[in-house]
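chain below, 308 aa
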Amino acid sequence: MHIGELARRSGLSVKTVRYYSDLGLVPEVARTHSGHRRYDAQAAARLDLVRTLRELGLDLATIRQVLDRQADLTQVVARHAEAVDAQIRLLRVRRAVLRALARRQPTPQEVDRMNQIAQATADDRRRIIDEFLDSIFTGIPVDPEFEGMLRRTRPELPDDPTDAQLDAWLELSELVRDPDFRGLLRRMSEKSFGETSQPVVPVEAEPARAVAELVDELAGPAQAGGIDPASAEAGQIIDRVVAAYAEAVGRTDDPAYRRQLLDTWELGADPRPAHYWQLMAVVNGWPPYPAVSPVWAWVYQALAAHPG
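prediction:
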């Protein structure tokens, strides 16, 4: 067949077929007396393979190696599939950044910073979290077991993250860089572990869990039942709750302790610490982390209404 017929069969232009032929990828089998090229069925099959591999993104040099049997096609396409996977991951990261930027009115500096965050490697992500934890713990005598648990718990973005995981990582990175959020957590650390302050709330797992369960048991039905936090009934509930907290930390339930407990709970009522763990859960593929419970908001209001 002549070159025009071969081009029509392949769906390529005559110019492209001629170029491939000149490179030796689709050699002609003969030429007419007038110099026109002629091709056979084998040439047509090679051209179909060249076209397919080009559409899949392989370069002509690699295609030549495959056709000349200098490279194994299975290995070549496997490597190319890995390269395509990497490109897909990069494009998904770029899309996540663009979506995040579209939700705000960013400055040029914010655009650059978010792009750097999105491109962060696993080591970069660890450094971001380490620096964040340093900012809230340095200089405070934090319980080593508690600090170690937080330092071991960091965002581990998988190699092939979902859109939700990418979005969560971007938001988490912005949150841990927020000076106000860092200040909030540092104040919480100082209240819990500061050398100059007596303990306000239990930090060890078992007593902390026990008082939390008591709050759910006593305040949960009250909040669900619409009991006014300022009512006398709420006052009786908060008396039992505060007494349990005071006993757990070796304190006396008096107005001074209640003021300290109210200050601590005020920090805990801020939704951002819970949101930090919600984002961490999405990034790491954990079960959903609950938001700040309405029960705890009720307890805080009840204590504010019954300070002594």
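The chain has two domains: 3-67, 120-308. Residues 26 and 42 are 9 Å apart (CA to CA).
thats it, cya
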